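Hey,

The postdoc asked me to send both predictions to you directly instead of through the lab channel. I've kept everything plain text so nothing gets mangled by the mail client. Protein one:
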Amino acid sequence: MNQTPLSARSAIRRIRWLPVVGLVVVIAAITAALGYQVSQPSSSSSSVSPSNTLRIEDRGALGEADGAVPDGVTVFNDEIRAVTNLDPGLLKALRQAATDAADDGEEFYVNSGWRSPEYQNHLLREAISKYGSEDEAARWVATAATSPHVSGEAVDIGHSDATEWLSKRGAEYGLCQIYRNEPWHYELRTDAIDRGCPRMYADPTRDPRMQQRPIATGSE
């Protein structure tokens, strides 16, 4: 029988190992890619009011001076214009309610309060982009000319446990939910203290105040 030279046998072994090494490299690459995907945070988030879907750093020139609200702001914060620019009667009622709610372990956070006209128009354009039409956007965001946020007469309260507390006891302080589709949106109705809150509108498009002017999405 013929003997295969040692150098030739070594070369054959190297050739046979090449596919195995290649397979190992491919498996390692796939594993690394899967690991990277798993480690990425989910882009989904819990449902929140449209006014609070943008972070301050995403608003360009708009910021706290226009009514943007950082995380963790309560109705007692005196350094945030979205709070301090609220109608004095509304702010007083909110703080009275929040003081009593604290006895039940609840805290009233402000997702949005007073807003500048520029900020309101910005939110409206974002809503049109998100919902695909002016008509659908109007169910969530009003124009700067009609929004009670711009006049300081509305506040969006978080979290859900706080709005649940207000839905049960808010009328005692004149605080009423105005729209059925926005459980976070509250306004002051002083008559509610004696008569209870008025019937809610299905959404802002049913509110006569929103019919004053057509939607305008011009420049800020």
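Protein two:
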Amino acid sequence: MAIGPIQLIVLGFTHPDFRGEVIAELEELRKTDTVRVIDALAVHKDPKGAIAVEHLSNLSPAEAVELGSKISVLLGLGADAGAESAREKGGVHPFSDADAWDVLAEIPNDSAAALLLVEHHWAVPLRNAVARANGFRISDGFISPLDLIAIGLVSAEEARELHDLETAGSAK
């Protein structure tokens, strides 16, 4: 299996109002073969601090067993533990509830966090072309909309709207 670049994204949700939109969008990205969710862990704390954890993955059981051993190495669990964990759970979840405990303490009451381990399918041909040209990744990261003003990609008003959209939940 040719695997694309993998990214871990951690998102926060203040006073979450989940209506299935995030999951639906991840499913659309999978249908178009843009990204694949290798593993996801959603953690919700109610107003009193009670915790609920839910897993999500759109891998087949066979893919999860194969990727479980590789992803678990990245998470410090070891290859054998990862593959065994994926088999025990029906082949779907390289993250375990125990892996999330570091994050749980940081989540305020009446909020949630989502840990998404995604594979970027769209980037496979680009990565391969870069490798054929003897290139390599030096760094990567998301750019704030506010930083796009300086290069003229967006206006100050557009940047503020995008920034507000991206950070709306953190201000409540």
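Summary for protein two, as requested: Confidence is low (pLDDT under 50) at residues 69-83.

Thanks,
C.
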